[in-house]
Amino acid sequence: MHAELLAIGSELTQGHTVNTNAAYLARQLGELGIAVTRQVVVADDRTAIVESLRAALDHSDLVITTGGLGPTFDDLTVEAIADATNRPLATRPEVARAIRTFYRRHRRRLNRLALRQACLPVGALALPNPVGTAPGVWLPLDLPAPRLGVQRAARQAGGALLVALPGVPREMQAIMEDSVLPRLRRRTGRPFIASRTIRTVGLVELQIQAVLRQLSIPAFVQVGLYPHLGAVDVRLTATGTPQQRALRTLNRLERALRRRLGSAVYGLDEQMLEGVVGEALARQHKTLAVAESCTGGLVSDRITNVPGSSRYFLLSVVVYGNRMKETLLGVAPSLLARHGAVSAPVAAAMAQGVRKQAGSAIGLAITGIAGPTGATPNKPVGLVYLALADRRRNAVKRCHFRGDRVAIKYQASQAALDGLRRWVLGLVD
Question: Tell me: the pLDDT tens digits for 412-429?
């Protein structure tokens, strides 16, 4: 089965909103063995939506739309589906009752326009929305309507399937997980698919690609490289082969990649770098304090996003001004005068200072120039010093990141967490 995703909304085409729904849907469908062959974004224009729907239905077995199911004037998806499939609209009493119940439960006065969401194409199944008022739409097209394309009409028995979901991610995901995925599993027969994601930090795609070319990867394993700021995920997906063979192959490839990529591999599947760091600190009963300048608390935010981080995380200090570095962390004024705030000696002093303040086993410090201002000829935008300290030793790393202010801050946080991981685990490249 091949699928197309059609995201509807002018806020998407104009760049005001990022289409995160597509990534979620593609992952969910991929786990069912349904390949997403195309993703299309279309504005809130009825004619454009109708044309996009007809084109999608002409060459895809499954079309999933997101957006445009609400009650306002620019929510045009349901009407466009009716036009594209040559089906009339009809009010569904059970959906209208659900909308009224939603308003009563939330002690809100019913806006009559909300009942517009109870009008659906004839033949469609209304998918309950557990967190909103707009139902999803499940419309099998087993008997193609006259206005559908020639390719669509020539398809084998079973036809196409059109699913419409709200654009609000929380509502879309709730309907997808409660109603759509169970029905798709029954429809596809739940083919066995095994996947493994090897998560790396500090490498770029071409470095990993060079390693992959050295491996013997069978045809039934698909390989995808997914880069992020300062990290690359390697996803291996095995399909169309017996379960035991798939798992043996993925295990073999994972071992080979770990051996060749070394300490750049920090985790698998859904593991996050901050979670891996937290597990290592908790396992070794070590505590941490952090002093941040250019990252503004981002490292501490990521660390404390992990449940249970209070077991090892003691203190966070955001010190932008030099006087605060002196007062709160005990950085010597002479160091700041001689080397400047963005320097290896000051980073080391910050790490030791925050460690002593907290009484922690480890101190981590970050200082740098996130830009776009503040640079000098000797200290460009993106220059960052990362420092780690315990009772016996200090280590400072000089980094130079590129991008805008937000990108530099994130890369600095990524490098700081990776440095902390290596420090705690005793990893050497």
Answer: 999 999 999 999 999 865
What residues does 387 pair with on adjacent strands?
Answer: 365, 396
Reported pTM? 0.74
3-state secondary structure at position 427: coil
CA distance 302 to 274: 6
CA 16/CA 167 separation, integer angstroms:
14
Q: Do 398 and 339 meet the contact criterion of CB atoms below 8 Å apart?
A: no
Residue type at position 329: L
What is the chain's length?
Answer: 429
Which tokens sit at 182? 């169970």
Q: Is the pLDDT of residue 148 over 80?
A: no
All domains of the chain, ordered by start, with CATH? 2-188 (3.40.980.10), 193-268 (3.30.70.2860), 273-425 (3.90.950.20)
Identify the residue whose tokens are 């709200």: 166
Structure tokens, 382: 């993106």
pLDDT in the model for residue 191 = 63
* Degrees, nearest 5: CA angle 238-241-247: 55
Ranges of beta strands (E only) in 216-264 are: 221-228, 231-239
